[in-house]
Specification:
Oligomer: single chain
Protein name: Glycoside hydrolase 123 catalytic domain-containing protein
Number of helices: 11
Keywords: Signal
Radius of gyration: 26 Å
Pfam families: GH123_cat (PF13320)
Structural class: alpha/beta
């Protein structure tokens, strides 16, 4: 081969290698990551609204990618998050032993949102995703705000653009909405993950971050427990109880509320002030615990709520707790919460609690029972249950609250890692359309030790037990909740003007629960109507 031919071959090989390691970026539909938007597409938004955008990045190189955003606006902020892949299983509809014994498809889901710092990220796959939190400023001018995104990697460059059409409409802050979010908190899970002493200064610092994240999605309720967590599957030291229960040598009980008090005060300092939901009076395992001064050990007892032994243990607590709550000015905020337990026994428990003080409140999550409803101030029902209008109106007239929840047993619309991204907005709108007060989920941050990269649990589907990750990293689903809340705010704005959203009643069609395509079709239509 002559010299010219050799040089031509080198150029050809070099061009081929660059092509194989090229960089390609595109904006894609948040409800279909394989559906790309046209160049220079336009998306509408209200002043004060967060617009969620997804950038799909393709590259065969694992080298750092420079990520630069340019905008002419000083009133609109853009935060980029690299969507790290996390292992998940496709096990929607399976709980407990069914999940443990089952075999399910496993895949990597881009769910963990890691803030891009120093304008660069390191991809962990040939196809990566970046989430853009585009927050339109309250003082932004109406009209078009162009945004340019430039990506660079090993000499390759990709430029993409989007136009934000700022409407002459203003969205109030999420905190102004009456729509209630109640995602249960697991402070002991936080301590376990970071391997720190429960209720230490370091632990409370992490819990401050947790409550800040919760405040960002309009959380209204503080999840509290008497013992260690709502389920107490592991016996721990007495000092780790949220309320330390002790039995003296003469047989009297005493209660140290210091952990509980600091925990509640931190939550309230972050704006979560409406309710305190206290668990453990009717737990799944029916256990209760106390520190026995005579033996120097934690004592475990088991008793049903309608038994004399249960009443003997809990009566002095309920009386002392009433005194403490009144002193703190928290009595009206407190409700004793029961999770998916026997309705008849729950009625007996409610009667017992109200026998101590008739103004005590009870909360319940589970199937709807007409006979239980009068005893339950805060009732959360599964998404596929419809409460008849007469009963719902009776609850509303009494000032009772009703919410909707999904969990591991839902095979249709859900908020799992493998659920459709449209599901969050749909479920939140469904609760609104039914006339409920909002949504509940059983776990905001119940983390496994490998949660940063692996969200496969033995007994629940991936994503059922968490919506945020350690180190202050949200999930994609967390941002979808914020987006859903903003759509609710828009609906509330129209309601104040005695106007209605065309087609909003279609959300109540039960077929949507099992059809993702119908959910996308109807929810996207409603969103377009809200931006007209």
């Amino acid at each position: 081969m002559n010299k010219i031919g050799f040089l031509f071959l080198l150029v050809f090989i070099n061009s081929f290698v660059q092509a194989q390691q090229g960089l390609e970026a595109e904006f894609v539909d948040i409800n279909d990551f394989d559906k790309k938007f046209a160049p220079n597409f336009t998306i509408k938004g209200w002043k004060g609204e967060m617009l969620p955008l997804i950038v799909k990045v393709k590259s065969n190189s694992m080298e750092n990618v420079e990520f630069n955003i340019t905008s002419e606006s000083k009133n609109t902020t853009i935060k980029p998050y690299y969507m790290a892949y996390v292992l998940a299983d496709h096990s929607a509809g399976y709980c407990g032993s069914q999940k443990t014994k089952g075999e399910f498809e496993i895949s990597k889901i881009p769910d963990r949102a890691q803030l891009i710092e120093a304008n660069k990220f390191k991809p962990d796959s040939t196809i990566s995703f970046v989430f853009l939190d585009v927050s339109i400023g309250k003082t932004e001018n109406s009209g078009i705000v162009p945004i340019q995104v430039e990506l660079k990697q090993k000499g390759n460059v990709s430029n993409i653009n989007v136009n934000i059409e700022v409407l002459n409409k203003s969205l109030p802050p999420i905190s102004s909405s009456d729509y209630k979010i109640d995602f249960w908190q697991f402070p002991m899970s936080v301590a376990d993950y970071y391997k720190i002493k429960p209720w230490s200064t370091e632990h409370f610092n992490y819990l401050e971050k947790m409550f800040e994240q919760l405040a960002g999605i309009n959380q209204k309720v503080i999840t509290a427990t008497v013992f260690w967590d709502p389920y107490n599957s592991k016996i721990r030291h007495q000092s780790q109880m949220m309320i330390q229960v002790s039995k003296s040598k003469d047989g009297n009980y005493s209660y140290d509320y210091s952990n509980f008090e600091r925990y509640v005060e931190i939550a309230m300092s972050k704006g979560i002030t409406d309710q305190i939901a206290l668990h453990n009076l009717y737990p799944w395992n029916n256990f209760y615990f106390y520190y026995d001064e005579a033996s120097g050990k934690i004592v475990t007892k088991k008793a049903m709520p309608n038994s004399a032994e249960h009443h003997e243990f809990w009566t002095p607590f309920l009386k002392d707790f009433e005194r403490y709550l009144v002193g703190k000015g928290w009595f009206d905020k407190l409700m004793f919460y029961v999770d998916e337990r026997n309705p008849d026994i729950t009625i007996e428990l409610a009667k017992f609690i109200k026998g101590i003080n008739s103004d005590y409140k009870v909360g319940y999550a589970g199937a709807f029972h007409e006979k239980l409803s009068p005893y339950v101030y805060d009732y959360s029902v599964p998404s596929n249950i419809t409460i008849n209008s007469k009963t719902l109106k009776q609850r509303q007239k009494k000032g009772f609250q009703t919410t909707l929840y999904t969990a591991c047993f839902d095979k249709g619309a859900n908020m799992l890692m493998t659920s459709g991204t449209i599901d969050t907005s749909y479920l939140m709108m469904l609760a609104k359309a039914k006339g409920y007060n909002g949504m509940l989920r059983w776990a905001f941050n119940l983390w496994g030790s490998k949660i940063m990269n692996n969200a496969i649990y033995s007994d629940v589907p991936s994503g059922d037990a968490h919506f945020v990750y350690p180190y202050n990293q949200p999930s994609l689903r967390y941002f979808l909740i914020k987006d859903g809340l903003e759509e609710i705010l828009k609906i509330e704005q129209l309601e104040q003007k005695r106007s209605q959203v065309t087609g909003f009643d279609k959300v109540l069609d039960p077929s949507l629960l099992q059809s993702e395509s119908l959910r996308i079709q109807n929810i996207e239509k409603i969103k377009r109507k809200l931006n007209e």
